[in-house]
Each structure stands twice: as C-alpha cells, then as structure tokens.
Design a protein that fits this description.
There is one protein chain. With about 300 residues, this protein is α/β, with parallel strands linked by helices. The protein has two domains: about 45-90, no CATH class; about 100-290, 3-Layer(aba) Sandwich (Rossmann fold). It is about 50% helix and about 15% strand. It has 13 helices and seven strands. The strands form two sheets. The chain has a five-stranded parallel β-sheet. Strands 1-2 form a two-stranded antiparallel ribbon. Strand 1 (about 40-50) and strand 2 (about 55-60) form a beta hairpin.
C-alpha cells in the first residue's frame, strides 16, 4: 500500500474549502473578459544557433513575421545572467560600508533649498554627478567636495558611489568608505605584533578599491606632534599616490577650503590630485538644518 499517497490524501482539504461559497455570476464575468482578449495563433519556427544547434520553437505569428526569432535557450541564459547580475548589484549596494542613512539612496533623495541661483547650481551638480557615475572608469577625474559642516558633502559622495555601482557594476568591484582619521587609526593598528595585516598591505588594498571615498580630511587625521603629523600625512599621500599610479579616481570631502586642503595634503599628493580633479564648493545652507526635524516642547 502506498503510505505516502494515503498520507497526502488524508491531508487534502475538504472540497468546500477549495472554492468560495458565493460564486454566482463569476463564470459569466470570466467568460466575458476572456472573449475580449485577443487570440494568438502560434507557428513553429526553426533556429540554428552556434551554441545550441538546431531547435524549433512555438512563437506567435506576429513574432514570426518579424523574421528575427532568436534561440530561446540563449535568451533564457541571458535572462538568468541579468537576474544574477541584478542580485549581485543589489547585494553590494546593501552591504556598502557607508553611513546607514545613505545605503541604497539615490539622487532623488538629495535636495537642498535656497534661491533660484542655488537650486540651479545644485541641479547642475546633480547632472554632473549622474554623468560622472554613468561613465566612471580608470583615468576618471577625482572629486573634491569642500564646505562647512552639514552641507551634505558626505551624502553627495555616497550617492555618487551608489550610482557608480548601479551603472558600472562588475563582479570584482570593490567600494571603500573611510574617514581620514579612521585610515590613520587602522594603519597604526597594523603596527601591533598580533596584527595579521601590515601597513603596506592595508594601503595597497585600500588603494585598489574600484571606488574610494576619503571623508572628512583634516578632521583628527594628524598627530599633534609635528614629526608624527608629517608621518600621518605621508600615509594618506601614499594612498593618493598609489591610486594615481593605478589611474583610479578618489572622492574626497573636507571642511577645509581648497587652499587649506592642498596645504594639508602636501605637494606630492596635491600635485597628483590636481592633475585631474573636479572641485565642488558646497556653499549652500546646512543640509541637516534644512532637512532636519526640530520640535520645541
């Protein structure tokens, strides 16, 4: 006796649970809808694919009449690859080590008020950022975002990187977001005997990131002692120099003015950055103030 079949039969729902109790007129309504739907006559069409050989497919007459019937196995494989690509792209976007409020965000979520001139300039910056991301590649320009605290420099940098992932994703793509002070802290951590990393390995790994944001340059990224401050700047300069060699752009944010920033970085790094850079002074009102929610009780 087929016990599995018996058990399945015992679990079968009662007939009255399979359909709604009130079905009057439903059949007529369905027939009416079906009668208005166009009918599609199908024909058999042959394809001769270099990969899958000769095949026959049932397609609608409209498709057959185009004379451009493709191997359906190729199409299925292409669709599966695109689905996998979208999955991997979404996974990378969701796992980026950027501030949580910017994960998966896009340019529609970045707006700043102000007068007509300010809004026009912001629209110009957004258009540039979209074009930059869509064409991102080796040899692309660096970006320097300067301005006071709260103007949205970090947010804009993250939105650009998100768009780079959406537009230019490939399987080995890597994205890094590091505050400048964090870089110095992590390099110094490699000096510990128990560290499995070395400063050189850390710098090389960060330098090879497909896209790199160095955030808040000048904020706690140098020692108070001049000798060690120079060493800290050398570490940051080493990353800029290595990315220059690899022709990889860097996106940088700072609260400094452009002159203060280049003085802070030193001649070597500044020279390499300025060879190909887009400078964006963020001089509008505080993004946090304009978009924040403040209540007084």
């Amino acid at each position: 006796m087929n016990t599995a079949y018996e058990n399945a039969s015992l679990r079968r729902p009662r007939p009255e649970l399979l359909e709604p109790t009130h079905t009057a007129g439903r059949g007529n309504a369905l027939d009416s809808v079906m009668s208005r739907m166009p009918s599609f006559n199908t024909v058999s069409v042959a394809t001769d694919c270099a990969k899958h050989g000769k095949q026959r497919w049932q397609v609608t007459e409209a498709v057959a009449n185009t004379g451009n019937v493709q191997c359906q196995k190729c199409q299925w494989e292409h669709d599966a690859q695109q689905e996998q690509l979208q999955y991997l792209k979404g996974s990378l976007l969701a796992s980026l080590d950027i501030p949580s409020e910017h994960i998966n965000a896009d340019f529609s979520q970045w707006t700043v008020g102000g007068d007509d001139q300010t809004r026009a300039r912001i629209a110009k910056i957004i258009n540039f950022a979209k074009h930059y991301a869509a064409n991102y590649r080796k040899g692309h320009a660096n970006i320097l975002l300067t301005g006071n605290t709260g103007t949205g420099k970090t947010k804009l940098a993250c939105l650009i990187v998100n768009e780079i992932v959406r537009q230019r994703y490939y399987a080995q793509m890597t994205v890094a977001f590091k505050r400048s002070g964090q870089i110095q802290h992590e390099i110094k951590a490699t000096w510990d005997k128990t560290s499995s990393d070395s400063a050189a390995t850390y710098i090389e790994r960060l330098s090879r990131s497909t896209a790199l944001i160095i955030d808040e340059v000048g904020e706690g990224d140098t020692s108070a002692v001049d000798k060690w401050a120079d060493k800290d700047r050398e570490q940051l300069s080493a990353i800029i120099d290595r990315r220059y060699q690899l022709r990889l752009p860097t996106i940088i944010t700072t609260n400094m003015t452009e002159k203060e920033f280049y003085d802070h970085m030193g001649d070597r790094a500044s020279d390499r950055l300025r060879q190909n850079i887009v400078q964006i002074p963020c001089v509008w009102p505080s993004y946090r103030v304009l978009t924040g929610r403040v209540r007084t009780l």
